[in-house]
Amino acid sequence: MVKTKKRNKKSHNKTKKKNNKQPHYIIGFFDAYASRDDSSWNADYFGYRKLIPINQFKTIQSIDYLNLATDYKKNPKVYKYATAEYRRRLILQLKDSPSSRKIFEKKTKKKYNSKRIHKIVDKMPIDKLQKLYFLLLEKEKPIKLRKK
């Protein structure tokens, strides 16, 4: 047998560089960076969305099925989520529908103003807010599309 040379491999102990870049996400056509590592935003196949706690998600689902916020008075955490969701939905309803604004002004005797509507809705008791929200949903006149 012929003797062959053995190659001695030298081990290189290098320290790895830490990746100090912020997480990178894509929103539609824009690139976005999370403001911090423990951010409550997450990227998935459909884009970039805000993560919410499971309890809050379940509460929103129950409100979709027309449950009331006052049903959750015994559980303060869920009650807080439910009241916040009703307030958010009422503000969105008023923002999108002029007919809802007129009904709101008649019932509350307060004018709709986009800058101070948050204060008005925050001061309203939840019982009154729920009744008003369901009334607006019933009386809403959707925009009719004209025939072409």
Describe it for me?
- The chain has 148 residues and is an alpha+beta fold.
- The chain contains five helices and four strands, in the order E-E-E-E-H-H-H-H-H.
- It has helices at residues 54-64, 76-96, 98-108, 117-123, 126-139, and strands spanning 24-27, 30-33, 41-44, 47-50.
- The strands form two sheets. A two-stranded antiparallel ribbon has the order 1-2. Strands 3-4 form a two-stranded antiparallel ribbon.
- Strand 3 and strand 4 form a beta hairpin.
- Helix 1 (54-64) packs across helix 2 (76-96), helix 2 crosses helix 3 (98-108) and helix 3 crosses helix 5.
- The longest helix has 21 residues, at 76-96.
- The protein is elongated, with a radius of gyration of 27 Å.
- The chain starts with 23 loop residues before the first strand and ends in a 9-residue tail after the last helix.
- The model is unreliable at 25-32 (pLDDT under 50).
